[in-house]
User: What shape does this take?
Amino acid sequence: MEKSFMVQGHVDQSSCLSYLSDTVLEHNINKKSNVLLICDHASNRIPQGMQHLGLADYQLGRSLAWDIGAWKVAKELSDRLSAPLIGSGYSRLVIDCNRPLEAIDSIPSQTEGVCIPGNIALDDTQRQQRIEYIYWPYHRAIKQQIEAMQEENQCVILISIHSFTSVMQGTERPWHIGITYNKDKRVSSLLLENLSRHAGELCIGDNQPYPVSRETDASIPIHGEKNGLPNVLIEIRQDQLVNTESGERIIEVLYNAIHSTMRSMVV
Assistant: This one.
């Protein structure tokens, strides 16, 4: 029987990950489309043996554990676009699937001013378990889906769905939706243009609240840039997703803009 226990705020996790299931979330995975949707921070789940990483339930419900509302939006867009969707099945507090493995916050010991007891003083074996059983299965699933779509002579457009807090370090963020990118602007330029027609009163951020980079992101650089795929990362302000009416408005605007972008893409 598996055992885990707390020692000075640290969870013994040396053998608690090989049993994991649902490390990868899939939705409409067999749909035929040029678009592949991904959601790096879809879930706030913590593996059972990790005792919530020493955090309270209310803390795991906050944005520090996941991108609130992002998976719901991604699934709705997947349904409307008839596009496959892949998400990470565990919280970014266990390991952040959208961080380079060498990044200091790949497995954060603190975030948003909150100490993460279960991430303190991890040894190499414990880190490797998270990489082997959570990080790489997610990225392998994306890689395999891209290859399957390319085998059918589809030009794959990679779209990553995220959400962000309305206030950061005391500063209010005005954007309702952010279109973010690195060097490849094939999708973002068209999407921004289409959003200007569809978004109405919504404030759209151009590479806001933060741009994509190889230092802070993994999914777009690994699967988009390295493969030469058109790509974009969409950020949605979380307070827009709490209210049903505003959430539906965001989804409708994004669907129309993405659909228009797909029709006009020349790659």
Notes: The longest strand covers residues 157-164. Residues 1-14 have pLDDT under 50 and may be disordered. The first helix runs from residue 57 to 60.
